[in-house]
Amino acid sequence: MPYIPQFHSYLRLEKSLSPKTVEAYLSDVKKFAQFLSQDEEKIDEQLLKDVSLEDFQNYLQLLFKEKVKATSQARAVSSLKAFYGFLQYDKVIENNPTELLEAPKIGRTLPDVLSVLEIESIIAAIDLSSSEGHRNKAILEVLYGCGLRVSELINLKLSQLFFRDNFIRIIGKGDKERLVPIGNTAQKAVMHYIDGFRSKLKIKKGMEDILFLNRRGSKLTREMIFIMVREAAQRGGVQKNISPHTFRHSFATHLIEGGADLRAVQEMLGHASITTTEIYTHLDTDFIRSTIAQFHPRY
Fold it and tell me: Which domains, and CATH codes, for the chain?
């Protein structure tokens, strides 16, 4: 199985990383594979699969001895954690060998976030006269309204919708289940899609329970969601370089800015560690700074 090409798609579509970052992550994984095989030209994906924590530690020791910058060492750890997280998510491996791997401490980078107005502009730009229009609107409402990963969205099932209780049941990373609240706006958009576009489809065998389908009655791909989001953003006049994951970042940021409890946001996002969620407490610094600049008499 070509793990590295699939990882490339995962980074671009699921993690919403820039092309340069994707290239760097892939380079880090390939260098680690070459370290394992002790061959600068060889990439043995089986060796990548069968590794231990000691292999990672030996690799980091080598980077340290070669005086690789701390930022590059940290990125290498991030690359490897992302790669093995991807393998675990796709059930190629059962346990993630990078869970205990530590990197040099450096500052976090903050993800791009859309404003509420930008999100409204994107959703309003959906062409509801097209056959897929109401489906696409429902997808965006669920992405932003529930903060889902794109893989969680495309695998969402009708049997996981509990609209009477205002919840959906999500199967996240490591097959962990969580309940996520869903608001009236997203619910209405989903029901409109189910009663309209979806009800007219000839659904392929095995796809009967999948919520979001293409016109051939099959499950949507990450690539299709990515393209739809980009096109909607362009039509809505949003100039930012966004992806489906941007809606997840925006969901979390707007909740934190509105005063939501950090633990509650952690549960809704499905983060294993609250330190991952804490990044969103720093995202509204520009808003705070602009507020002070506008209203403080001595700024």
Answer: 3-89 (1.10.150.130), 116-285 (1.10.443.10)
